[in-house]
Amino acid sequence: MNARSHPELLHSLSNAHLDALEEETIYLLREVAAVFERPALLFSGGKDSLVMLRCAEKAFGVGRLPFPLLMINTGHNFPEVIAHRDQRAAELQAQLIVRSVEDSMRRGTVRLSHPGESRNAHQSVTLLEAIEEFRFDALVGGARRDEEKARAKERIFSHRDSFGQWQPKDQRPELWTLFNTRLQPGEHFRVFPISNWTELDVWQYIAREDIVLPSLYYSHRRAVVERKGLLVPVTPLTPARPDETVQERAVRFRTVGDITCTCPVASDAATPEAIVIETLRAEVSERGATRMDDQTSDASMEKRKKDGYF
After folding, report:
1. pLDDT value at position 8?
2. What is the Cα–Cα distance from 98 to 122, expressed in whole angstroms?
3. DSSP letter at 21?
4. Picking from 117-121, 171-175, 281-285, which range would have the lowest pLDDT averaged per residue?
């Protein structure tokens, strides 16, 4: 029997699969709360962090999150996402800590090569400064293994050295769901409770749980230009070039990072269910289809992670 030809069967299978993923994520979040003294949950207001926050809500309850939410703001984030971030934190009565790349620029720890340079990669500096400021020993992130090749090399409990750097060959084995969380002074862990989720799983869960997302995730009309195979949004930060033709098209964002490096995709999908169908048909990964800063080098993400990036 083909599950896709029988929607009721597909629904039951999907729920069983999502139940298992949710259970694992809740277990990992509770493990973080039990093992570490000063954890924080990285919260951008994007779909993956909102899914993780829903699991945290189920794990601990409203007003009872045992760790603050931490957001590193480039200063070039989508306003809709920032507003939704603040709203969700308030609904959960959670402590929200925001640190800005612009603050690092004022301190001189971040220096741009030119005013138009994307600040996205520089978030690692601000993040490491926040870790030092609050002495965090674990940061919970929403990375998934299907996002990008370097992400797939991560452990669920990913060790970082005293410089905040990731060394792929030094990661500890995780056999039988046993995690080695020993730390030396100055070290910390990045923990990825939705490592075993895919983009499709995330959208199925959003549909099932009726999770509210920033409107950018759904189809809307937007001015864009075609550049290097991507649809680049036309904004004050990303203006059209003289030789480019501006088009207004129906698009949605698969991910909502820094405006200067995040592109939408052509889409008429206006509901989570419609996006599930689109995701089933997608032939290009989420980051490959939407991130300008990931087009330059296959090793770019791995290098950033070694330098302390998410």
Report:
1. 54
2. 15
3. H
4. 171-175
Q: Is the pLDDT of residue 296 over 50?
A: no
For residues 45 and 21, membership in a common domain is answered with: yes
Q: How far is CA 120 from CA 31, 73, 93, 250, in A?
A: 30, 9, 28, 26
**Tens of pLDDT, residues 210-257:** 999 999 999 999 999 999 889 999 999 999 999 999 999 999 999 998
Q: Is residue 157 part of a domain?
A: yes
Tell me the average pLDDT of the chain. Answer: 86
Per the structure block, which two tokens stand in for 52?
A: 């993780």
Is residue 203 within 8 A of residue 48, CB to CB? The reply is no
* Amino acid in position 56: A
pLDDT of 127 over the 70 cut: yes
pTM for the structure as a whole: 0.87
Helix (H, G, I), strand (E, B) or coil at 273: helix
Same domain for 94 and 234, yes or no, is no
Q: The tokens of 97 are what? A: 């800590």
> Rounded CA gap, 126 and 99, in Å?
7
Q: Looking at the domain assignment, is residue 163 inside a domain?
A: yes
Residue with tokens 């990825």: 192
Asked if residue 262 and residue 173 are part of one domain, the reply reads no
57 residue type, one letter: E
The closest of 142, 138, 177 to 159, measured between CA atoms, is: 138
Report the distance separating Cα 306 and Cα 310, nearest Å. Answer: 10
State the Cα–Cα distance between residues 188 and 186, nearest whole angstrom.
7
- CA angle (212 as vertex; 209, 215 as ends), nearest 5: 140
Residues 154 and 12 in one domain: yes
